[in-house]
Amino acid sequence: MNDPNNPFAAWQQFWQQAPTQALPFLPPTSLAEVEKRIADLDSVEMWLNFQLQAVQTQKALLQQQKVFFESFAEKP
Q1: Could you tell me the pTM of the whole model?
Q2: Number of domains in the chain
Q3: Residue 17 is assigned to a structural domain of this protein
Q4: Nearest 10 degrees: CA dihedral of 36, 42, 45, 51?
Q5: 22-73 pLDDT tens trace
Q6: Spatial distance between the Cα atoms of 50 and 28, rounded to a whole number of angstroms
Q7: How many angstroms separate the CA atoms of 15 and 23, rounded?
């Protein structure tokens, strides 16, 4: 495995020593793992939706402030 002429030796060693849970990009191998990944993605989706709502609220408030300040702006 420590062949200096093998450019892939490090990767081969990594793949052989790494546990499957440490490699999240590999496809799931059991129903429990699929269900866990779905639950994780549901949590991420919920967090992202919350963040999106926060951004939309902030944007709406800024638009209202813009209209307010424009109403006091001098008109030529």
Answers
A1: 0.57
A2: 1
A3: no
A4: -100
A5: 566 778 788 998 899 899 999 999 999 999 999 999 999 999 999 999 998 8
A6: 28
A7: 9
